[in-house]
Specification:
Keywords: Membrane, Transmembrane, Transmembrane helix. The protein has about 55 residues and is mostly helical. The chain has helices at about 1-25, 35-50.
Length: about 55
């Protein structure tokens, strides 16, 4: 029975990890893709603007 208790945590973690990966893959694209892309583009633009702003 020691081998069962030794294998349960890695198996549970593997199942959880696979679930997370599947969820991430399924959430890519779809109707929210344009909104997410716009948010990322806005954040990048703000970072670039702050980087180029003259400092006094």
């Amino acid at each position: 029975m020691d081998y069962v208790s030794a294998l349960v945590p890695p198996v549970v973690m593997a199942v959880f990890f696979i679930g997370v990966v599947v969820t991430i893959i399924k959430s890519q694209g779809g109707p929210n893709k344009a909104k997410e892309d716009a948010a990322v583009d806005a954040a990048i633009a703000r970072a670039e603007a702050a980087e180029q702003a003259p400092r006094a």
